[in-house]
Q: What sequence folds into this?
């Protein structure tokens, strides 16, 4: 049974004039300054791309261009138009903003992010990303909600209060984000912009009794009091804050502009969630015969221009050491395009992290594209998305490893894409992120050998099919620092493409093997 | 981090006088309710089975008595008249004032735009109907259960929604068969691209997971207790060959669904042990019937549906006690009636459990409930009898619950609106710092200003409203009656005093009798009338802003 205390609301019930945010705000102004350390107060901006983004046309693996032309020719961008970041990679031509962030060391590209047994259903996969559950588990709380539950036990009772006057998370939009769903309540405050809808009028409300009616009434009353209290501090911060650059006239930019304004206005909110929809590009992702234009081009432009403007603003406001952002989308799309100039639900896709404290560069390798693939084949996973969550919790929010484990249920690989914010710009090479490994014979009739050099840590070896399903865990144990030959048995499986993923600490490698 | 840790400890120090709410164990079982029938029980029944009601409806249902009330609410109604073309002059097949639901699609004049406006306006008019019947709430129930969205030919959408509205308490097995080959569903869940050479599992999976039997715990790879991945594949193959036709088609006038034999997989389909390894042999266009009969051999279907109905009509929490005392007997009743659900819905709405005092008022209204509720509670005037004015007003009202996050014909995904399945928030997901102010903006506007429909102001006449009471001269009766309509449970003495303070600031009760009496004697005195109307408007406004008003 969930306990709900309501000392604050119940003691105020008989004093209707005192309800609402007024007294909370009055207190907060004086005590605020002593609580916030502006140098250590960290902000995470989540950019949710709803619908499943086509990573292969976002950050293009140029070394795979020829084979991509064979399987998705009707949507391929002209090779010369791609904004190259090096010999092997480049951004979509409408992403000059991302290119510039990358060139100045403010953007990390984490390749092929997904989870084992990709579900490929929009709502289920979104639930998985929000909750950070395994593909087969149903978890009703969000990953940030669980983190906040550990930091602020008992929420929402007695919040906001003198010590914590501001919302812990803010969602720009009409619904609160499920990433912030805690055990008893959602930690995020929804707002549609600066000119809020105004204060809710307080009324003499009944005292909740111990029936379900009492519980729901208690909930509504908390929405009223919290909305009022939070809307006051949010509007105050909005009035105090400002923007230093022009933003493009785009929905995502509008949301990010408000975020920059609120952070600069001194709000201590830790997490902002913004979103952009329309990525479910089953049809007409590009215009037939004119692949430089179409839905995906507009989306890439909006994503890139909005984030570039936001980062420029954050830098101009001097907040670059306090704010990072990451994009995420429920899945990538299929490798092969369909006849309708679109792509269907796939597996992994690149994820972008940005900010002054991000170690710019590319994490992981380009996916290997075969010239003959099954229609339903997706990009195989290299990084589990929960590794990124874990790395943010540890490196950004300075959460202890044991606590990270209780938030994410198990240990995940740490990916060092954040740095101490001592100014070093430039793009780094991450060859040390890769495990030296090969697999042979390839193609294989059933019995292959994975040759790998390990460093003496816990090593995981997993076998996936081309839909992203985890077929088997080949190995999950501590190995001596040595060169190892690990047998991979494919004899039970049908012929086709398979992927072997080996992980040790923050390093990994994903290798394709063909079963004949 | 140190500083934060310190404050955390202080903040979480237990308060000695802390009051903790434990929800009491649910009471009441599935047997027929034997208790008193007052306007509290009658209002509870109306609140849960209609989209709002007014004083006269409540009075009628209270006076009818329990048995008659249930009978009236679940009785069959005559078929509705279809939506009309009210403003589009260039559809060659549909003159103004006629219906478009079976007329050809006309791309030259982009006729779907007006048809869609007509469809949503017409839908709103049904929601605003003051007929005392469960039809509209069941129609939305089925829409939320068999979700479709984004099918942009209004003829398809009309036919789809009409499947529910024409038979709101149907035989569930028959309805599953109908929806399986419904052209809108064939489009929404890709049945039309499900072929022997390229099976599409979208519908086959949801048929099992969301529409009939539900997904149990995963007990082995691909085995979800009630069905397996093997079944998803076999079901999908058995459904190959069905396509819709006529969608936005300007060359043929008709539309519907048909079976293309050479797209149908004729091989045997072997189901898993979850369906007793049943083999379904080729039966062509009749195969889907056999398939669905096979699902309905599993008792789990009746439990799955009972839970769904329970969350729609009673409450979201289903624990072991509810499972044993309500879900099981309800499921048994559904099976005993060969999957007709009417008897089970009647039994649920007549149950001791439904009327247990605990359950009254513990549902958070969904946006349609809220909008319908405000409109009827305050007796807003109907638009004048002019098609264009009516439809325009209905459409505008329809748009108000769209921003409150519930758009008819456009649920967020195939699982329906999250309030009915998303743990742990369920109904609470409707309300947050954006949607609650949006609701209050709506009720504020309607109570103070009404709605503008062409040159007409559709506002409730609050004096006419209280004139229907037995004794409108009695301020206590005025408050009691308004509260009975607007709030689900009686309110505290404090709250009654606050409400009385609005009508009679610092004055004794008899002053209401005096003021109201004055007005009755001088009904043309504008000053007297305005003063009373303002008081009543303030009273309604105050009640609509109480957190209690969000509860049903």
A:
């Amino acid at each position: 049974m969930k306990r709900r205390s309501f000392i604050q609301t119940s003691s105020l019930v008989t004093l209707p004039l005192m309800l609402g945010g007024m007294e909370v705000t009055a207190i907060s102004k004086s005590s605020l300054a002593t609580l916030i350390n502006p140098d250590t107060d960290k902000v995470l901006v989540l950019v949710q791309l709803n619908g499943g983004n086509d990573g292969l046309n976002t950050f293009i693996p140029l070394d795979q261009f020829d084979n991509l032309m064979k399987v998705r020719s009707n949507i391929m961008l002209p090779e010369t138009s791609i904004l190259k970041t090096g010999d092997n990679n480049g951004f979509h031509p409408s992403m000059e903003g991302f290119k510039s962030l990358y060139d100045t060391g403010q953007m990390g590209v984490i390749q092929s992010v997904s989870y084992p047994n990709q579900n490929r259903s929009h709502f289920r996969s979104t639930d998985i990303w929000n909750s950070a559950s395994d593909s087969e588990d149903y978890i009703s709380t969000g990953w940030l909600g669980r983190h906040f539950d550990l930091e602020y036990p008992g929420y929402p009772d007695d919040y906001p209060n003198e010590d914590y006057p501001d919302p812990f998370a803010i969602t720009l939009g009409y619904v609160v984000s499920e990433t912030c769903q805690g055990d008893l309540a959602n930690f995020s405050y929804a707002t549609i912009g600066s000119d809020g809808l105004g204060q809710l009028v307080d009324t003499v409300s009944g005292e909740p009794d111990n029936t379900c009616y009492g519980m729901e009434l208690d909930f509504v009353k908390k929405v009223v009091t919290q909305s009022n209290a939070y809307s006051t501090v949010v509007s105050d911060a909005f009035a105090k804050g400002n923007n230093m650059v022009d933003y493009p006239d785009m929905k995502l930019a509008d949301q990010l502009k408000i975020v920059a304004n609120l952070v600069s206005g001194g709000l201590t909110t830790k997490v902002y969630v913004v979103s952009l929809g329309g990525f479910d590009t089953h049809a007409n992702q590009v215009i037939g015969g004119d692949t430089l234009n179409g839905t995906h081009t507009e989306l890439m432009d909006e994503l890139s221009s909005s984030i570039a403007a936001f980062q420029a603003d954050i830098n101009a406001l001097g907040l670059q050491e306090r704010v990072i952002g990451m994009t995420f989308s429920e899945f990538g799309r299929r490798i092969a395009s369909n006849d309708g100039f679109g792509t269907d639900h796939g597996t992994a896709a690149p994820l972008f992290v940005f900010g002054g404290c991000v170690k710019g560069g590319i994490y992981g390798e380009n996916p290997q594209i075969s010239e003959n693939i099954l229609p339903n084949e997706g990009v195989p996973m290299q990084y589990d998305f929960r590794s990124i969550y874990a790395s943010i919790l540890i490196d950004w929010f300075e959460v202890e490893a044991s606590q990270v484990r209780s938030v994410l249920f198990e240990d995940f690989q740490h990916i060092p894409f954040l740095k101490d914010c001592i100014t070093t710009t430039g793009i780094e090479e991450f060859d040390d992120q890769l495990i030296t490994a090969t697999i042979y014979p390839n193609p294989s009739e059933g019995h292959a050998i994975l040759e790998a050099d390990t460093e003496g840590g816990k090593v995981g070896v997993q076998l996936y099919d081309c839909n992203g399903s985890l077929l088997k865990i080949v190995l999950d144990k501590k190995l001596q620092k040595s060169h190892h030959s690990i047998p991979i048995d494919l004899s039970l499986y049908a012929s086709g493409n398979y992927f072997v993923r080996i992980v040790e600490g923050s390093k990994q490698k994903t290798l394709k093997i063909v079963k004949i | 981090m140190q500083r934060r840790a310190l404050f955390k400890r202080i903040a979480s120090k237990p308060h000695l006088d802390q009051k903790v709410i434990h929800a009491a164990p649910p009471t009441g079982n599935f047997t027929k309710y034997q208790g008193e029938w007052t306007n509290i029980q009658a209002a509870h029944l109306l609140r849960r089975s209609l989209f709002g009601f007014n004083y006269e409806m409540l009075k009628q249902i209270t006076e009818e008595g329990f048995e008659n009330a249930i009978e009236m609410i679940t009785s069959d109604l005559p078929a509705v008249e279809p939506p009309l073309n009210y403003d589009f002059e260039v559809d060659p097949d549909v003159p103004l004032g006629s219906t478009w639901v079976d007329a050809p699609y006309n791309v030259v004049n982009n006729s779907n735009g007006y048809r869609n406006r007509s469809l949503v306006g017409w839908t709103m008019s049904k929601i605003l109907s003051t007929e005392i019947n469960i039809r509209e709430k069941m129609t939305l129930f089925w829409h939320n259960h068999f979700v479709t969205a984004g099918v942009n030919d209004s003829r398809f959408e009309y036919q789809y929604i009409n499947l529910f509205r024409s038979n709101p308490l149907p035989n569930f097995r028959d309805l599953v068969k109908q929806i399986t080959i419904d052209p809108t569903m064939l489009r929404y869940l890709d049945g039309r691209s499900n072929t022997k050479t390229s099976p599409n599992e979208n519908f086959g999976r949801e048929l099992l997971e969301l529409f009939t039997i539900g997904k149990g715990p995963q007990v082995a790879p691909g085995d979800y207790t009630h069905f397996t991945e093997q079944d998803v594949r076999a079901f999908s193959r058995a459904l190959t060959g069905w396509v819709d036709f006529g969608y936005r088609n300007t060359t043929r006038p008709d539309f519907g669904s048909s079976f293309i034999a050479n797209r149908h997989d004729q091989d045997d389909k072997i189901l898993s042990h979850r369906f007793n390894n049943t083999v379904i042999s080729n039966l062509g266009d009749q195969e889907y019937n056999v398939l669905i009969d096979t699902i309905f051999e599993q008792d789990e279907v009746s439990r799955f549906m009972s839970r769904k109905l329970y969350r729609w009509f009673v409450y979201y929490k289903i624990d072991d006690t509810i499972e044993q005392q309500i879900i099981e007997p309800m499921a048994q009743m559904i099976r005993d009636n060969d999957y007709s659900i009417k008897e089970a819905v009647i039994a649920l709405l007549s149950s001791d459990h439904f009327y247990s005092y605990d359950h009254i008022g513990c549902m958070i209204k969904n946006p349609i409930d809220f909008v319908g509720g405000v409109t009827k509670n305050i007796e807003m005037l109907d638009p004048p009898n002019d098609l264009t004015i009516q439809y325009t007003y209905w459409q505008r009202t329809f748009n108000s619950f769209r921003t409150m996050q519930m758009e008819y014909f456009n649920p967020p995904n195939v699982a329906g609106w999250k309030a009915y399945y998303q743990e742990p928030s369920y109904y609470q997901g409707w309300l947050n710092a954006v949607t609650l102010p949006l609701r209050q903006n709506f009720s504020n506007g309607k109570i103070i200003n009404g709605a503008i429909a062409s040159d007409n102001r559709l506002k409730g006449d609050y004096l006419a409203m209280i004139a229907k009471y037995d004794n409108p001269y009695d301020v206590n009766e005025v408050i009691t009656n308004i509260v009975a309509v607007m709030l689900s449970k009686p309110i505290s003495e404090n709250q009654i005093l606050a409400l009385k303070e609005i009508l009679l600031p610092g004055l004794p009760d008899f002053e209401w009798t005096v003021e109201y009496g004055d007005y009755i004697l001088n009904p043309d005195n504008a000053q007297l009338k305005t003063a009373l109307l303002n008081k009543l408007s303030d009273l309604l406004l105050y009640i609509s802003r109480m957190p209690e008003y969000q509860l049903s």
